[in-house]
Amino acid sequence: MAATPVAAVGDAMTHLVFPARVRLVVAIPDALLERLEAFVAERGWNLQDGVRILLAYAAALHAPGTGGPTAEETVNAWGAARAELALLRHRAYLADESVRTLRMNVTALEAANAQYRRSLPAVEAELARLVTPESLIGVSEPLSPDQLATAPAARQSLPRGY
């Protein structure tokens, strides 16, 4: 038996392990090529292997009978995504309206607080005028301390401390 060179055996069996390749030429825009190169480099692949992997993945995903989404499933998925987007937009609108209402309430409270602060000295002055001992016993002229001490009805109607 003649010895077969190893290289000849390897070449003879190559087609069994690695199927024949077809060369494919693809023209893509420069911007897409830059994105593709960045994507492939990010994963540590060279450009040829990255393109092969991505094409094989897409072919396996969309080939009939491989479990890829059908056209109807794709349309349904798009419809569900649009419905969810509409719901999220509505929730964002409601949140925006709530924030607007809260801002108006805060502004109104701040205005009311400022008004109360401006009117407080006048109210305190009016209260001090109304709560004098003379006004409590119905006397129009101020009483001296001796008069207050001798007026039993006046003492009873005065608040504590007077």
Tell me what the structure shows:
- The chain has helices at residues 6-17, 30-42, 47-62, 71-130, 133-137, 145-150, 152-157.
- By secondary structure, the protein is mostly helical.
- The chain folds into 2 domains: 9-68; 71-131.
- The protein is rod-shaped and about 125 Å long.
- The model is unreliable at 1-10 (pLDDT under 50).
Outline of this structure?
With 162 residues, the chain is mostly helical.
* Uncertain spans: 1-10
Mean pLDDT comes to 77
Number of strands: 0
Q: Strand share of the residues?
A: under 5%
**What is the gyration radius calculated from CA atoms?**
46 Å
Descriptive keywords:
single chain; 162 residues; mainly alpha; 2 domains; disordered N terminus
Helix and strand arrangement:
Elements (H helix, E strand, L loop, with lengths): L5 H12 L12 H13 L4 H16 L8 H60 L2 H5 L7 H6 L1 H6 L5
